[in-house]
Design goal:
single chain, elongated
């Protein structure tokens, strides 16, 4: 079983406030579990979220600097 992270731990990893993580939960943009009244996140949910929101650069148009 993988480690479960708290809202605060996920916020620290993302470098954001706890409220932002709660917004992600409300919008169902990150995987989470409810343990009673508490929110917990599988450790793998953070890299999955980051992969989903990563914007790749556009390919070069052939012009060199």
């Amino acid at each position: 079983m993988q480690r479960l992270l708290t809202v605060h731990e996920v916020a620290e990893v993302l470098g954001t406030a706890d409220g932002f993580v709660r917004q992600l939960v409300a919008a169902r943009r990150i995987r989470f579990l409810r343990v009673g009244k508490h929110l917990r996140f599988p450790a793998s949910a953070v890299p999955e979220y980051l992969a989903a929101v990563t914007v790749e650069p556009l390919p070069s148009r052939g012009r060199s600097a």
